[in-house]
Structures are given as C-alpha cells and as structure tokens.
Specification:
CATH class: Alpha Beta
Number of domains: 1
Number of strands: 8
Order of helices and strands: EHEHEHEHHEHEHEHEHH
Low-confidence stretches: none
Strand order of the largest sheet: 2-1-3-4-7-8
Structural class: alpha/beta
Shape: globular
Distance between the termini: 9 Å
Oligomer: single chain
CATH architecture: 3-Layer(aba) Sandwich
C-alpha cells in the first residue's frame, strides 16, 4: 500500500485529481489531493503574499501532519516546481517523484524563467489588469482539455498568485536529484506535441528517470485518468 500525494498545477485545485484518486484508492492505496493555498476551495484565502515557498510548505506540512513515509509525490505543470522544493527539504520521505507534463527546475529558476517570453507577457498583462498580483487562468481550450470537460475546468480554475511565478526556487540539498526514482509523463498531444517536451527530452539520459507519454492534452489527469493511474501503478511503486 502506497501513499500518493498528487499536487495540482497553476489555477487548479485538488478537484482535478478526483478520477485518478478513485482509481488508486480502488487498488487499496492512500491518496491525498491537497489544494494549494489561495486556490480552488481555498481561494477565499488568496493573498498577494502567497508564493512558491508557501506552496512547498503546504505539501511539507501535509507530509508532516499526516505522518507520511514512502510517498509517491506527483506534480502537474507548475506542480513540478512544488514537488522539486519538497524533495529538496524532505528527501527521506519521498519514494518516487512523478512529473506530469511538468516544469523540472534547476536551482535559481522561477516559472517565468522557464516559460516562453510570449507566455510570460500574457500572464503579466493579465496580472496587471487584476491588481498586479492575480494571474488569470489559462482557458481549458488552451490546455486542449477534452471538449466535454472544458466548461467544468473553466468554472473550477481560479487566479494564481503571481509570487508563485516570480519566486526563484532555492535548493539546499539537490532538489529532485535527491530522489532515486523519477518519472516524467508527457502529455504528448498538447501544443501539437511540443508543450513540455523539452523537459521530457531533457531527462532522457539522466540516471534514475523513466519516461512515458499519454496521448492527450495538458490536463492528463482529466483527459486520461485510467492511463495515468496505470502508469503510476506499474512504475511508481
């Protein structure tokens, strides 16, 4: 029996993992789908003070207070920043890291250092129109979410504190390199296959990594929950 902690990406919440969580729980595993500070059902706590460190602390505290060991820690998209910071600070608690179409940061990088300049401009312009610190959600269509779920995703996503995008991650003990077992799962259909492929390609020859592809848009946990659960059960335990 494993402890899965599934960390969502920007603008989302724990709600996006419901289908995957049900499949993993049906196999007898413990599954946690925390919502990061200021998002989803915690959007009433939104604050300009929330940043990447806040979200890393959210997950560290979950692991601490739930007394979790041997954690399979998954991060989607922006969540790759969060799980990298958690692995840096709680290396003895993590059995495997899973980057689901996610950013894989080097020490000293921020989200805005890693996304294309045109994406950063859109997000900065959106934040400027919302008090300077709230980045509006990317529409579900932009993530190529399947058509039947787009309205639900658009209604559920909430603004992201800009500090999550601008704060540079700082590693003390090596970040994701601390964890021996690492998976990268690429959402191969997003952006005509381009999407986050640079991160998928970037870990190809690095020790400890296994790579997988799902033929779907960026929100793989919504579009292909069965495929994602199958990869996790066969490779992350």
């Amino acid at each position: 029996m494993a402890n899965f902690v599934l960390v969502h990406g920007a603008w989302h919440g724990g709600w996006c993992y419901g289908r995957v969580a049900d499949l993993l729980r049906a196999r007898g595993h413990h599954v946690f789908t925390p919502t990061l500070s200021g998002l989803g059902e915690r959007s009433h706590q939104f604050s300009a003070a929330i940043n990447l460190t806040t979200h890393i602390t959210d997950i560290l505290n979950l692991i601490k207070w739930e007394r979790l060991d041997d954690v399979v820690l998954l991060g989607h998209s922006y969540g790759g920043m969060v799980i990298s910071g958690v692995a840096d600070r709680a290396r003895d608690k993590i059995a495997a890291l899973v980057f689901l179409d996610a950013l894989v940061p080097h020490d000293g990088q921020s989200v805005f250092d890693m996304v294309p300049p045109e994406v950063m401009k859109v997000q900065l312009d959106g934040a400027a129109a919302n008090g300077g610190y709230a980045v509006p959600p990317t529409p579900a269509l932009g993530f190529e979410v399947n058509e039947k779920d787009r309205a639900w995703v658009d209604a559920s996503c909430t603004p992201q504190p800009i500090g999550c995008m601008t704060e540079r991650i700082k590693f003390v003990s090596g970040g994701s390199a601390n964890v021996r077992k690492k998976l990268y799962i690429l959402a191969a259909n997003w952006g005509s296959g381009r999407g986050f492929r640079r991160y998928y390609d970037g870990v190809k020859d690095q020790p400890g990594w296994a790579r997988f592809e799902l033929a779907c848009g960026h929100d793989a946990m919504i579009d292909m929950p069965e495929g994602l659960a199958a990869i996790l059960l066969a490779n992350a335990l």
